[in-house]
Amino acid sequence: MRWRQRLPLSLVFAALALVYAALAEALSLLLSRWLEGAWAALLSVALLAPLLLYHVRRAFAPMNSLFRALAGSVASYRDGDFGFGLAWSGRGELGELVASHNALAETLREQRLALVQRELLLDTMVQNTPVAMLLVDPSRRVVHANLAARKLLGDGRKLEGQSFDALLANTPEAVREAFERGGDGMFTLGDENDVDNGNEDIYHLARRHFRLNGRRHELVLLRQLTAELRRQEVQTWKKVIRVISHELNNSLAPIASLAHSGAELLRRGQLERLPTALATIEERARHLEGFIRDYARFAKLPAPRLESVPWDRFLAQLRTQVEFVAEGSFADHIGRFDVAQLEQGLLNLLKNAHESGSPAHEVRLALRRASGGWRIDVLDRGQGMNEAVLANALLPFYSTKRNGTGLGLALAREIAEAHGGRIALLNRDGGGLCVSLVLPD
């Protein structure tokens, strides 16, 4: 059999053809002694045909075995079994085919091993993450749930195959309300009457939809934020206390010193210097009063009372309090906002623009229509902000000014977001800052 594997099939068939042609001619000559020529040729062919068929089948036998092995290995690959290989000592096209097939099998084995390792790593990460993760199919059945999800929603039991809606029905009301609102959100679990003792847990809900095998699935993520929020809360309170202590000391220390000095001047009868001391005390007291008022305004910002207001009238009233150049066409246009809150927010932005070192005539307010609302740009030609300041400027209590409270931009952001809008800061080409405030209709 091995010699047939090594020889090209064309040579084997040529040899068989020559041998059987010679045998047929010899047998035809032998039979022609008793039969006519045509009948002798037909009889010789009929006698040699079975023998020829046997040798042809013998010649094709190794190749047929190879084809059956190829079909079997392909079926194994389809079933995910890549442990098969083929042995073929022949050369030529069949040898190249077997070598390519074995190379493909080796590549598939390596890829399958790498895929299994990645799946194992991913499953380990998913199972051990503190974020509760659930995959829900279109029929609202749980396809996959990690250990955190089992602990949170199933008391540690497996959730796969269960109805997700039935699971939600057995959860606290806060969880059900968070899902009923749709989209992302936050909710609190625990005893609401014992919040001060830290017996409540705060969770963030994230929901994402995607298609898997052509079907719409939902990925549900539940992340506990209690510890992180408490750390941030503590850090914020520490910063608030530091800022308030600093401002109080800056005002109360000079007030106490000047009050003592005033008493000494009064005792000595040096009344001509007394008005200066009293004026300084008044100035520091008013600064302290404004500082406390700003903090109270920021902490107790009420929900905006929306009303329809002509923009030209609103900007005319704003110009009586701070100087700026108005840009844009706003005659006969109506906005819907809380007049007092938006006025306070824009006053803060315009005063910051004047304090940036910008010439007064370069402080501008541009009003224009935006997609589904209005865009207000406060522009200046001051020094602008570096990247670090831009990243933190909108945070409460962050200020680069020596006597700044860090609440002007934070209050403007709070007002914009309370109206359903947003605020952004960016440096302008040629120097200066642009503060963009977008308000919906």
List keywords for this structure.
441 residues; alpha+beta; Beta-Lactamase; Helix Hairpins; 5-stranded mixed β-sheet; 13 helices; 12 strands; 17% strand; elongated
Question: Any overview of this molecule?
Answer:
- It is built from 13 helices and twelve strands.
- The chain is α+β, with helices and mostly antiparallel strands.
- It has four domains: 2-111, no CATH class; 129-224, PAS domain (Beta-Lactamase); 229-299, Helix Hairpins (Orthogonal Bundle), CATH 1.10.287; 307-440, 2-Layer Sandwich (Heat Shock Protein 90).
- Strands 2-1-5-4-3 form a five-stranded antiparallel β-sheet, sandwiched between helices. Strands 7-9-10-12-11 form a five-stranded mixed β-sheet, with helices on one face. A two-stranded antiparallel ribbon has the order 6-8.
- Helix 2 runs antiparallel to helix 3 (37-78).
- The protein is elongated, with a radius of gyration of 44 Å.
- The N and C termini lie far apart (88 Å).
- It is a multi-pass membrane protein.
- Residues 243-441 form the Histidine kinase domain.
- It is found in: Membrane.
- The chain crosses the membrane at residues 34-54.
